[in-house]
Design goal:
About 40% of the residues lie in helices and about 15% in strands. By secondary structure, the chain is α/β, with parallel strands linked by helices.
Length: about 400
Amino acid sequence: PTAGFARSYGPLAVETFGRWVGVQAIDAAGLAGLRATVECLATTEGLPAHAASVAARFTDAAPSPREGQQGGEAGPVRLHANEAPWGPPPRVQAAIADAARRANHYPDPGQRDLRAALARLNGVTPEQVIAGNGSDEILHLIALALLGPGDEAIVCEPTFGMYRLETERRGATVVDVPLDADFRIDRAALLAAVTPATRLVWLCSPNNPTGTPCDLGTVPELLARGLWVVVDEAYYPFGEATALGLLADNERLIMTRTVSKSGAMAGLRLGYAIAAPATIAPLDALRMPYNVNALATAAALALLDDPTWLTERVAYLAKERERVAALLGESADLRVWPSVANFLLVELPVADAAPIGAAMTAAGVLVRHYPHPRLRRSLRITVGTGADNDRMLVALAAALAGSRLEVQA
């Protein structure tokens, strides 16, 4: 009736009557960022199934390789240093970039915001916290404050090498109390090793490089003898056994922790100690000013503002740890030590595991071998993403097969 005028010049068109649907593709990191918002909106609108579907999708999703530098086939898989297999979350990367723009300014020498954030994370007061350039600096400050010539410090080998190094640097004597056959604390031997010269006991919980839990029940007995006890809980998030509950009445107890492992910040170096305020104060007096740089401070504050990312990544790695341990345990030739850390100690059917580790490195999978007599047959393998771990399993099987062929030849 309009002679085509409406079709040609009217405001309506065929597209007007179409149904438009928007689709957005996001990776695991994006889904993690939207999770709280989506769940809140879905719950508010009475859509519980929709809210639950977000949680289910995230639980099943492996973190995106784009978050970090593991690189898949493009580069080596780094399973030798107990690092996180991904980079920090986007909000932390943004905080680092923002801090870099203001890198002409010194960081807060008093670490006030950083200590407050770490205190909130651990349920203590800021006066009970000191931060350092990695846990190594914290261990150095402890040795500097407590040890000197004539003192003895107990180390339970095999364990983290910095305890021995820092003790010897101070001119003190290292007393080695070997772990028992299961790589656990030998309580009787430990208590028997205490002498009038004993000043300090170093404990690693969970223990590195074995991954085994530490018997913290021995700690009160050591404290009752007037000893200083350092409990290194660098891998605490993966096992959750802690000496924190013993701090209240023990000024001689010091706990050390880090955000390097679970927080994907190894390259930024940030460790800290928790102790009584009267213990933290002398450590703080020895600390160099500006020891934690502005980028590490900004990253930690952004990371700790919402610990959800931390807990979800830790849960993912713990699940992968158990999966990999179960797969390795299917072989009668391998012994996988129980682990509550982000790595596994695997004993191989060889006299020396170093060549196996070298073969895996040549195949693009980096793992750690120790020359310690009790570890010579073993490799310490960091837990990575599912893809990283699968690649490791293939490389290990190939290296072992090659070793058997050489022996037969």
